[in-house]
Amino acid sequence: MTHDVLIENARIVDGTGAPWFRGAVTVEDGRITDVFRGDVDVTANESLDVEGKAVCPGFIDTHSHSDLVLFEDPTLAPKLRQGITTEILGQDGFSMAPMYRDGGADQWARHLSGLAGDVDVEWSWGSVADYLDTIEAHGIAPNVATLVGHGTVRFDVLGMDDRAPTDDELEEMADLVADALEDGAVGFSTGLVYSPQVNASTEETQRLAAELEPYGRPFVAHIRSEGRWIWEALDEFVDIGADENVPLHLSHFKVSGTEQHGKAERATELVETARERGVDITAEQYPYTAGNTLLSAVLPPWVHAEGPDHVLEVLRDETARERIRRDIEEWRIDGWENQGARSGWENIVVRNLDTEAWREYEGESVADIAADRDQNPVLAVCDILLDEELSPAMILHTVTEPDVRDIMASERVGIATDGLFGAYPHPRTYGTYPRVLGTYVREENHLSLEDAVRKMTSLPARAMGLDRKGVLRPGMDADLVVFDPVTVESRATFENPRRFPSGVPHVMVDGTFVVRNGEVTDARPGTAIKK
Hints:
Layout: E1 2-12, E2 21-28, E3 31-37, E4 43-49, E5 54-57, E6 59-61, H1 69-72, H2 77-80, E7 84-89, H3 104-111, H4 113-116, H5 128-138, E8 143-146, E9 148-149, H6 150-158, H7 167-182, E10 188-191, H8 202-209, E11 219-222, H9 230-244, E12 248-250, H10 264-276, E13 281-285, E14 290-294, H11 308-316, H12 318-329, H13 339-343, E15 348-351, H14 366-372, H15 377-387, E16 393-397, H16 401-408, E17 413-415, H17 428-443, H18 449-456, H19 458-464, E18 480-483, E19 506-509, E20 512-516, E21 519-520
Parallel strand pairs: 1-4, 1-5, 6-7, 7-8, 9-10, 10-11, 11-12, 12-13, 13-17
Antiparallel strand pairs: 1-2, 2-3, 5-18, 14-16, 15-16, 18-19, 19-20, 20-21
Helix pairs in contact: 6-7, 7-8, 8-9, 10-16, 14-15, 17-18
């Protein structure tokens, strides 16, 4: 038999956590045909001697925000170049489908511009199936799958209203979730710090998550708090999983803010306790002490209640701005993840400023911007968001390195980017996986090579129910990464975030090279995965 591709003289890291071994991999028709130990004597149309470098399954990013960017950059080069071959979209309750609300697509895209990017795309879809079909017809380099978002179905039914749904409206939302799962969504997500789903009760969230039970697909959550109320938020999440018998996946696991620093071990123990209770829970983490999200997330929930145009009206009103300031500075909204006060304005850096009035402040903290303008920090943020029409992002320095390490050590925690795009992204968009392999494996020996790869491959594949991905075995999809354990590292920094990593020369998606000799090819073999 002549194979399509032979990758030989490799250090095989199969994704299971088992010790690596010397061997080779063959590929035929987009699938792995054989994994050999030692030297091989087979024929192939194309042979690649990797000279002792590691070969492992393609990395699965369980927290991607490429939902609209992929239409503008279908290669997603910042992801491919670090070895990512599958992206899970629809995060934090923000999926791009279903979208049936009249005029809703434009409003939704504007609401999410700080998160999903300001992308000019013809929004021609309604259902999840239509969205995935549109992606596949467009042509993409990596594989993608999507969750159905809590915020999206709430927006479809209630718009941005900050009220509880009626019984009929809640059932309409549940039907939208069920339809999306039938259309192939790999799970259901929420982000309970973001509008409009910040307005949801536990009962609403649980009713929608209950739709997952017949499918066995995960409930993925940015929980209600990662700081002051993290323990109550974790309890809420775990209780939903236990009551509804659905798998759980915790987004960007962290303990945030000074009052929670040093408590990562307590948080990971809660995950272990949940599993002992019979709850199937996993988590993900990005390997940085700083987060990244839309700057408008610092505004109180009531500001977002009627959509982007109303937010801008509120920001123009002096009385409303004073109410915003007091809500933030005096913690007047109980249970709200008050990110500005929690983080401290000196720890919030503003990114993606486009107007001439604000461009000089790109990459500076809110505290420094406010001081330069002799202005209250909250009011400075209001001015930025108003002039920039809500599009800026922020980087929040709120986590300690020891807590990052403690969470990373948990065998239940995988790796993900949570990467946003834009002119000045967080370095995790370009460097998450090489950072783990270079810093935490090679330099610090915090993880073994095999366990790090497991956290990037088979663990996320199992969490998302991707049965043909994540392990090097015959019959599995030929999503492969070749990296050099000696040289792999992230080169992206907060000062220079758009730098590609080193030490990842080859990446293959469905048996086709999408990165070859460190360069992105023109191939677009990716598929839109439907469950």
